[in-house]
Amino acid sequence: MPNKQLYIDNEAVATLGLLQDGLLFPVTKLMNKEETKEVCKTKSYKGSSYPVPFLLAPSGKRNEKVLKSLKKGDIVDFITCGIKSGQMTVDEVFKIDKDERIKTIYATSNPEHPGVQNTYKRLGSYAVCGDFTVDFDAAKQHKVQIQDAIKNTDAKSVSAIMLAGKPFHRAHERIIRTSLVNNDLMVIFVLKPYTKDSLSYETRYKTIEYFCNNYLPKDKFVLVPLENTYIFGGINELIFNAIVAKNYGCTSLVVGKSSVGLGAFYEKKGLNTILNTLEGINIKMEIMSKFVYCNKCSTLVSTNACPHGFHHHVNYHSESIMELLELGIIPPTLLMRKEISSIILTELFPQREEKLKKIYQSIAPSSGLLDDDENINFYEGLMDLYHTSSLT
After folding, report:
1. CATH code for position 20
2. Strand ranges for the chain from DSSP E
3. Where in the sequence is the domain holding 23, given as residue range(s)?
4. Residue 109 shares a structural domain with residue 150
5. How many angstroms separate the CA atoms of 158 and 150, rounded?
6. Extended strands (E) in 210-365
7. How confident is the model at residue 271 (pLDDT cuts 50, 70, 90)?
8. Which of 59, 166, 198, 244 is the most exposed place for a label (fewest CB within 10 A)?
9. Residue 67 near residue 77 (C-beta atoms within 8 A)
């Protein structure tokens, strides 16, 4: 008789894969009903901060029917995109409060919140736990990659930074360089989302890779994709980032001072952040101050080290820079490298290729031969023309 089946998506497989490969330690298994209650109450697990119970509660009427029918010891197959992606030996099935779980993750159940919308669709009313395996090797491969880099460089201090790269700009570069001054190695995790976005993950990765390969010492960094699943969303992002970075072998985590993940709050007559609540996660936090371009200093500076007022500061506001790119406007090079702008614009406007060739060949210096360069070079060449000026 064939096994019963639970249908889970790629995001669930990736999250289970992180658990399977020890990257969410001290949690090493799906939580049962009693453990779920305890974590909800204490926000900790085995002496370490753990903000939300680790559960598998797939949505859908078909899944709910199967979950209600399962008994201890039953074997159930995981199906993803029509293919078997893993298997579980059932220990327990129990009902959960969907609204309460979503509040625990996002601190709100407002349906207008994009994370709430996505998670509510994916979350069912019944959770299942038990020993499982999933077909997901990426986390294990990346762990080996990082451990090899640490061994080959004999690195004692290994910093980690989590980057979405939307878009990757000059302030990101400065943060990476600043951290590298005090560390032997940096692991740059490029967050890999499981939702559609205007800028693809592949392009984000390509822009960060371009900077690392051309402007960092080869033995000072490791570039690694990180499955950016729903557990990294909401108010718990920084805690899970710290847990994953630690389990990958990093000794410190780089966090921007203005990061929403710090979760500043006022308590006991003082300003605190989520860092004040961390327990049992033995990793150092490198809190980076805000970086701006000061038109009086004529360079990129930390707001902690610049004597000039905010009216002299150009801000690296990612959303605004991304809006420029989405409008087809090349950001000034003090905000982003022209090569990185070119990579992004080439993806956002692929239909421009033929028109750009004609325009560029009409106005730019030429050897007289038709160039067969890729689209990206037209944007770079145009930026070079912006810097050309009269000598008189």
Report:
1. 3.10.400.10
2. 4-7, 44-45, 48-49, 75-80, 83-95, 126-134, 158-163, 185-193, 221-228, 252-256, 265-267, 270-272, 284-288, 291-294, 299-302, 313-315
3. 4-134
4. no
5. 8
6. 221-228, 252-256, 265-267, 270-272, 284-288, 291-294, 299-302, 313-315
7. very low
8. 198
9. no
Question: How far is residue 316's CA from residue 98's CA, in Å, rounded to a whole number?
Answer: 37
Q: Identify whether residues 108 and 163 lie together within a single domain.
A: no
Q: Please name the residue that has the structure tokens 């801000």.
A: 315
Chain centre to alpha carbon of residue 378 = 30
Neighbours of 23 (CB within 10 A): 22
The upper half-sphere exposure of residue 237, i.e. CA atoms within 13 Å in the direction of its Cβ, equals 22
Domain count, the chain: 3
pLDDT tens string 286-317: 988 889 999 999 999 999 899 998 899 999 99
Tokens of 258: 């203005």
**Do 255 and 233 fall within a single domain?**
yes
Report the candidate in 260, 100, 95 with the shortest Cα–Cα distance to residue 164. Answer: 260
Rg (alpha carbons) of the chain, rounded to whole number: 24
Output the pLDDT for position 277.
57
C-alpha count within 13 angstroms, C-beta hemisphere, residue 208: 27
C-alpha to C-alpha distance for 335 and 290, rounded to whole angstroms: 14
Tokens of 192: 């890999």
Is pTM beyond 0.85 here? yes
- Considering 269, 288, 307, which residue would you say is the last residue of a domain? 288
Q: Confirm if 87 and 133 have CB atoms less than 8 A apart.
A: yes
Query: Which residue is it, tokens 């050309």?
Result: 388
Q: Quick one: DSSP state of residue 28?
A: -
Residue 60 CB neighbour total at 10 angstroms: 15
Amino acid at 142: H
For the ranges 144-153, 176-185, 216-225, 329-338, the lowest mean pLDDT is seen at 329-338
Give the separation between CA 291 and CA 106, rounded to whole angstroms: 28
| Contact status, residue 208 vs residue 223, Cβ threshold 8 Å | yes
- Are 165 and 205 in contact, with CB atoms under 8 Å apart? yes
By mean pLDDT, which of 184-188, 218-222, 256-260, 314-318 is the weakest?
A: 256-260
Place of tokens 């944007």: 379
Which domain CATH number covers 247?
A: 3.40.50.620
